[in-house]
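Section 5.1 Outputs to date
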Amino acid sequence: QVQLVESGGGLVQAGGSLRLSCAASIRTFSVYHMDWFRQAPGKEHEFVARITKSGGRTYYADSVKGRFTISRDNAKNTVYLQMDSLKFEDTAVYYCAADRATPWGRIEAAHVDVWGQGTQVTVSS
């Protein structure tokens, strides 16, 4: 059985930091690219960050570049999203996602293989 379980969401002040974790039960974790998406109220899923299967490359949406950092620990089957300098507009439900094959440039929610349940991040001002 494959599942992704997210944790670490919560309420933080603008300018603060939060670290999200996603624990995967996927037996062959290293064959998946791992992504973070977010969905703000009334909005479509928005790509946030990607880390490749071995952790060698990372990609970020322009809106979070320089503030967010994605990482993974394949020995622990876990992916992380470190969020710094948070802004009110970062408020959203954040989803961990596993993707076996979609290359950078074509990442979209419709191509995700496995979704986490989501964790709420609320930034107050």
